[in-house]
Amino acid sequence: MSSIHLATLPNGLRVVHKNTGGTKIVHCGFIIDIGSRDETLPTQGIAHFWEHMAFKGTKKRKAFHILNRLDSKGGELNAFTTKEKISFYASILDSHFEKALELLTDITFDSVFPENQIEKEKNVILEEMAMYRDSPDDALQDEFDSLIFQDHSLGYNILGTQQSVKTFNRTHFTDFLANNLNTEKIIFSSVGNIPFEKVLKLAQKYLSDIPRMTNGYTRNLFKNDKVDHKVMKKEISQSLCAIGRTSYSISDERRLPFFLLTNILGGPAMNSRLNLSLRERKGFVYSIEANYSPFIDTGIFSIQFGTENNNLKKSIDTIYKELKYFREKKLSTKQIQDAREQLKGQLAIAEENNTGFMLMMGKSLLDLGKIEPLDDIFHQIDNIDASDLLALANEMFEEDTLSTLIFSPK
What we know:
Layout (H helix, E strand, L loop, with lengths): L3 E5 L5 E6 L5 E8 L13 H8 L9 H9 L4 E6 L4 E8 L3 H13 L5 H19 L2 H13 L13 H6 L2 H11 L5 E7 L3 H12 L21 E6 L4 E9 L7 H12 L6 H9 L3 E10 L4 E9 L4 H17 L4 H19 L2 H15 L5 H9 L3 H11 L6 E7 L1
Parallel strand pairs: 2-6, 7-11
Antiparallel strand pairs: 1-2, 3-5, 3-6, 4-5, 8-10, 8-11, 9-10
């Protein structure tokens, strides 16, 4: 962690950099503590629409010049929106790092939201919505979020609704930024074979003139847990199912143990309990996974799979049987040790991805105020024992606390 450096500019913007050798590529970007949960009911989708509009014109560039600036140098410019974060980021040869920093600063802070481009982009986003509707797996996740976080902005679809997207104009974007941008909640993060002194000098050159921005906005915290069960008819050939509930926040001390438990249950490895039970032994599913996503105030745990309609009940019964196993049986010393090593290996591999690590540094600073060294995380994992996981399973895996959403073929 000695290669990670952090500085705070006078306007509150923070700069974090990891100096890594063996590469000619630098990965950098802004991670902003704004997401779809910060929208209101009439402005659903405005955060994601801003992500699109950042590429459509600034005070000194038109859309083509934005797209061509890094592409012409062999670089990549990208962005994403989640429920709690927006990021604009790039990967490019380190010799062009300054170009990337200057362009990212321009699109993040100086977008002008041309009305003619807004109207064009509405159609693009409506097509994006149609694409997701045609992808049942993606639609299942969105609908399950709505089921779990009823009447709260965490349940909003990140793309918004057709009705809301069609209403947006330039004022919606300027108002949203004025109400939400806070320079103390924006991180510029970079990873590459560049000295931190150079990164900081260029950051000061391009970021110091950005005025300090603050606002009185505070997020509406989620409090109202409900259990619900819903069946929706769809034009699909398989039944799709999501089972889950709310879970632990990102600052909860149970977060890492629950990641471990979720990983054993249905993580990405082929030896997960659910994969072995439903695919390898019974052949009910092609794939099944369990996921846990923490937010600042809550989290969501879910199991998702698809199966032939006549295998749906048998699949659900098998899942509940596996959950009961974790509630009633303390894992053996070998099972715990193998699970720890598996998770540590997955985390170490993930850290090798420099783009992912760059984004993780920014998100971790915003959510936790620190970047945890991998060795510290490994130490925490090694201290998780079977009793911890048994207690978590009894708290999180009780059948009567789990909601279900089923997409059933018409």
